[in-house]
Structure formats: C-alpha cells, structure tokens
Specification:
Elements: H1 12-25, H2 37-61, H3 67-79, H4 84-103, H5 115-123, H6 130-138, H7 143-154, H8 165-175, H9 178-186, H10 196-204
Helix pairs in contact: 1-2, 1-4, 2-3, 2-4, 3-5, 4-5, 4-6, 7-10
C-alpha cells in the first residue's frame, strides 16, 4: 500500500543532512528510496545495512514509524561499526532531527513524537548523553524551555524509554545542575506559562 500522507516539513539542516546521507552511505540504492519499513529491515538483515540506512533514517525523522520501530532503528545504527565518513553523515541526521524537535513549539510535533519521545529514541543510539543535552541547554531561550519543563514535571516514560532507566536518570540529574536551573530561571522563564516555573523548581530543588 502506498503512503498517502502529506510530505514532511523538515528544517533546512535536516533536509540537507538526509540528502548527504544518500550521497555517502552507498553507491547504488536500487529500490531502497521507495521501500516500506519492513522491506528495508529485511534487506538490512541480509547484509545491506549501509544501503538501507538513508531510508531508515528518512522514515524515522519523518515520523513514518511507530515509536518502537524508530527506537529499533537508532539502536541498530548505534551498534554497527561505521567508517568515519558514514558515521558523520548518520550523526548529522540525528543531530539535525533533535535540533528541529527542540525548536518546534509545544503542540507542533507530529504525534506521538514529542521531544521527550524523540529523545528516548535518540538515546538508544548510545552516544554520550552530552550530545543531546548540550543543544537543549542552548535552546532554553525558546521552546526548549517548555520541553524541559514538561520532562521535569511529567518524567520520562513510555515505549521510547523502555530499558533506558539510567539514561532517563541522567537527563533528570542534568536538569538539576546549577547551569540548567539558572538558564531556565533567568532565560527560559519567559517562554513558560504562568505557574510552570514554580512547579519545575519544586521538583528540581
């Protein structure tokens, strides 16, 4: 069955990163650009992971997969040993997706891929947590503040975080650092609805 959903709206950085991944990961993709997830995974399992990766990334960042399948993609990519050039291309897609997610205002994210869900998917890639937390700190003067408040107040749970308790605790420990609290209080507060900052600080301090 063909996908009749509207084309995704991507940031310029994410769009360029996906284009670059197709250029770098393999020389010949054949039918990969049109394949559905199950078919792509089947071929990846048969030893064609490099050629399958741009399509897997595309399906993931365009929110065409279930949360469970998206998480399985990042975990698979994180386990594989890549050349430095291929690794850089993959990580630029993931970095661009995370920044795009942080910069979208609450309510603008395709369901169910809210920031806390996307982060849960990304931490399965097994990069150091600083890779995802540093950009978040830089985005506290914007929607990133509201996303952090949501995580602090409601926690990290659901299928994206299955088996990732340690990483979830790292996120909450980072939120309690002086740098983050000061950033949220002095810069991010203007981006929060009335009363939210108090709820957040009650949980952090």
């Amino acid at each position: 069955m063909s996908d009749t959903s509207p084309p995704p709206v991507r940031s310029i950085r994410l769009d360029r990163a996906l284009v670059a991944s197709w250029r770098v990961l393999a020389d010949d993709y054949g039918l990969f650009p049109e394949l559905a997830f199950d078919a792509v995974i089947a071929r990846a399992d048969r030893g064609e992971l490099a050629a399958a990766t741009p399509r897997l990334l595309e399906l993931t960042v365009d929110h065409r997969l279930t949360v469970e399948d998206a998480a399985s993609v990042t975990e698979r990519l994180g386990r594989h040993r890549w050349s430095s050039k291929r690794l850089a291309a993959i990580e630029e897609v993931l970095d661009a997706w995370w920044l795009e997610t942080l910069m979208r205002s609450p309510g603008e994210h395709p369901s169910p891929f809210t920031p806390e869900v996307v982060l849960g998917v990304l931490v399965g890639y097994r990069a150091p947590m600083v890779r995802w937390l540093e950009p978040w700190l830089a985005e506290l003067d914007g929607p990133g503040a509201a996303h952090l408040a949501t995580v602090v107040v409601h926690g990290l749970d659901g299928p994206a975080w299955a088996g990732k308790r340690d990483q979830a605790q790292q996120v909450l420990a980072w939120a309690r650092t002086e740098t983050v609290i000061n950033g949220l209080t002095l810069i991010g507060a203007t981006h929060l609805e009335d009363g939210v900052l108090g709820d957040v600080l009650d949980r952090l301090i």
